[in-house]
């Protein structure tokens, strides 16, 4: 049996873990599996090793790990592979690391569906955490451009770590209607900071991401199965 483990960054926000759990449950339901858990890189338990050990105690032998990360920043490139290695050694599970959520066409369509509820003249501000990696920030900007292509709405990007509320206020100037789309999986302290920002603040993406997580799981499970056959396991 192949289990699903979602791996979030983790948050000090009291509602964050429950939101990740709901997303994980929805994705598992989409692919029809009974064994699944959420794990977190920091701030929240269980970590990946803890989740892997819990599944191993239930007789699970392998799992696909889907990082709930949007860009290929440091966490995706370094922290996630390290966590997978530690979890494999600790639990004995065979773990297949799937791609993260990404900023590709699937994500653009998730965000575009949110804009179906928008006023025809509404300006869309995509609100992301921001990264020290310029390539990660550029990927978010390209995502915003694609959302504009799909919806016909003007778009811009604000980063929580590079201006945050002030950036949103500045970008909202000149528009009668503004909608902020958070590039957040679940509730977060950086998202709470927008409570008094101009415009409509959408909730985090949450279970809207279930289809992407399910697709990542299925690709990971197929790749893992082919590798096992190749190795004669």
From TrEMBL:
Protein's name according to its UniProt entry: Cobalamin biosynthesis protein CbiX
Keyword Lyase applies: yes
Keyword Metal-binding set for record: yes
Record's keyword terms, sorted: Lyase, Metal-binding
SUPFAM superfamilies with a match to the protein in the record: Chelatase
InterPro entries per the UniProt record, alphabetical: CbiX-like, Sirohydro_Cobaltochel/CbiX
Domain of life: Bacteria
Gene Ontology terms, MF aspect: lyase activity; metal ion binding
PANTHER family per record: FERROCHELATASE CHE1, SIROHYDROCHLORIN FERROCHELATASE, CHLOROPLASTIC
Taxonomic lineage from the root: Bacteria, Bacillati, Actinomycetota, Actinomycetes, Mycobacteriales
């Amino acid at each position: 049996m192949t289990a699903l483990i979602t791996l979030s960054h983790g948050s000090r926000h009291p509602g964050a873990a429950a939101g990740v759990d709901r997303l994980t449950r929805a994705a598992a339901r989409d692919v029809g599996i009974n064994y699944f858990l959420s794990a977190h890189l920091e701030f929240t338990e269980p970590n990946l090793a803890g989740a892997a050990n819990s599944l191993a105690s239930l007789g699970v032998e392998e799992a696909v790990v889907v990082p709930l990360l949007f860009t290929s920043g440091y966490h995706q490139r370094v922290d996630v592979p390290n966590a997978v290695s530690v979890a494999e050694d600790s639990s004995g599970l065979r773990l297949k690391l799937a791609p993260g959520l990404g900023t590709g066409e699937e994500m653009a369509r998730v965000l575009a569906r949110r804009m179906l509820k928008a006023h025809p003249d509404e300006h869309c501000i995509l609100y992301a955490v921001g990264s020290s990696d310029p390539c990660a920030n550029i990927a978010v900007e390209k995502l915003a451009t694609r959302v504009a292509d799909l919806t016909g709405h003007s778009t811009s990007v604000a980063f929580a770590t590079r201006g945050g509320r002030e950036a949103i206020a500045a970008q909202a100037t000149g528009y009668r209607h503004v909608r902020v789309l958070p590039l957040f999986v679940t509730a977060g302290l950086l998202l709470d900071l927008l409570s008094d920002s101009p415009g409509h603040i959408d909730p985090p993406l949450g279970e809207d991401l279930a289809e992407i997580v399910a697709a990542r799981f299925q690709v990971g499970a197929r790749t893992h199965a082919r590798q096992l056959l190749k190795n004669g396991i």
